[in-house]
Each structure stands twice: as C-alpha cells, then as structure tokens.
Write a structure and sequence with these properties.
mainly beta, single chain, 7-stranded antiparallel β-sheet, 108 residues
C-alpha cells in the first residue's frame, strides 16, 4: 500500500460552503489534515461527505466546528474507505482567512 499526499495551500475560507478541493473519484482510503492556525476570532465548519451510489448524491458523513483560536492548530481526519471523497469548508463569523491542507490517499 502506498500513501500519496496532495497539498492545498492558501485556500480562502469564506461565508459560503465551498469544496476544499475538486471531489476525488476512485475506490481508495482517503483522509485529510487541515491546518487551522489562521482562525483567530473566526470560526470554521468542515463537512465530510460520503457518496451514495444508489441515490447518486453526496450525503453528510461528519462535521467539525471550531470557533476562535485553539491550541489544536491542525486537525487530522482518518483514512476511511470511499468511492468518492469530498470535503467542504466555510465560516459563519469574522472575515475571510486562508488555510492549508494535505489530502491523504492510500491506494489498495
């Protein structure tokens, strides 16, 4: 098995929910590390989606919310088996800010 890391730099978190990356298609294990050190007095909502092949839609699988500065400056969301992988981010308070992330893919 091989681990592949794909970095995302300076992604702007805004008041609109937006894909952190173009959804990935392929049957693998996916995870992500998101660096939340720039949040300050803002907040971040990270939503993970699972693809429902019967309904042909993405469905919310899990969500993480952080408000204000935290001693946790990075969040790791473990590798899970997926057919497609999609993560969105948004803020509800404060102004726009940038985050970095690493998408982790483990091939079969």
């Amino acid at each position: 098995m091989t681990l592949i890391f794909d970095s995302i730099a300076n992604f702007s978190v805004t008041a609109s929910e937006q894909d952190l990356f173009t959804p990935i298609v392929g049957e693998n294990y996916y995870g992500i590390k998101i660096y939340t050190h720039n949040i300050s007095t803002n907040d971040i909502i990270i939503i993970f989606y699972d693809y429902d092949p019967v309904g042909a839609v993405y469905r919310e699988l899990d969500r993480y919310t952080q408000t204000g500065t935290s001693t946790d400056t990075a969040k790791f969301f473990p590798l899970i088996p997926q057919r497609r992988f999609k993560v969105t981010v948004q803020r509800t308070i404060g102004s726009n800010y940038n985050i970095n992330a690493d998408i982790i893919t483990q091939t079969a």
